[in-house]
């Protein structure tokens, strides 16, 4: 049995593309484990964009977060812990 190879953590924010995955890229860069990264995203502490089931992080939003020390919602992002589909479903239910 061959052991799984772990992708090395990005060393610098500059090493990442403009939009990247919450886990492992943003989480490891911030020194967070998988569960902690998703918990922070759910609480809105890490600004995320949802594409289907994938949670992505904008490099610009993460840079603002690190510079200001405050969670920053990405432009056009749904409220923390929500995606557009679930918001539409909730509104449609009487």
Provide keyphrases for this structure.
94 residues; alpha+beta; 3-stranded antiparallel sheet; 12% strand; globular; disordered C terminus
Description of the molecule:
- This protein is an alpha+beta fold.
- The chain has one domain (14-92).
- Helices cover 39% and strands 12% of the residues.
- The chain contains 4 helices and 3 strands.
- The protein has a 3-stranded antiparallel beta sheet.
- Strand 2 (49-51) and strand 3 form a beta hairpin.
- Helix 1 crosses helix 2 (34-43).
Summarize the structure.
The protein has 94 residues and is an alpha+beta fold. It has one domain. The protein is 39% helix and 12% strand.
Can you count the beta strands?
A: 3
Query: What would you report as the Rg, rounded to the nearest angstrom?
Result: 15 Å
The helix content, as a percent range, equals 25-40%
Structural class estimated from helices and strands: alpha+beta
Which helices and strands, and how do they pair?
Elements: E1 19-21, H1 22-29, H2 34-43, E2 49-51, E3 54-58, H3 59-68, H4 84-92
Antiparallel strand pairs: 1-3, 2-3
Helix pairs in contact: 1-2
């Amino acid at each position: 049995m061959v052991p799984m190879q772990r992708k090395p953590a990005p060393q610098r924010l500059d090493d990442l593309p403009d939009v990247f995955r919450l886990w492992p890229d943003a989480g490891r860069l911030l020194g967070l484990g998988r569960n902690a990264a998703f918990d922070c995203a759910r609480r809105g502490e890490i600004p995320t964009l949802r594409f289907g089931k994938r949670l992505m992080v904008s490099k610009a939003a993460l840079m603002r977060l690190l510079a200001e020390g405050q969670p920053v919602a990405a432009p056009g992002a749904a409220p923390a812990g929500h995606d557009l589909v679930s918001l539409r479903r909730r509104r449609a239910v009487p």
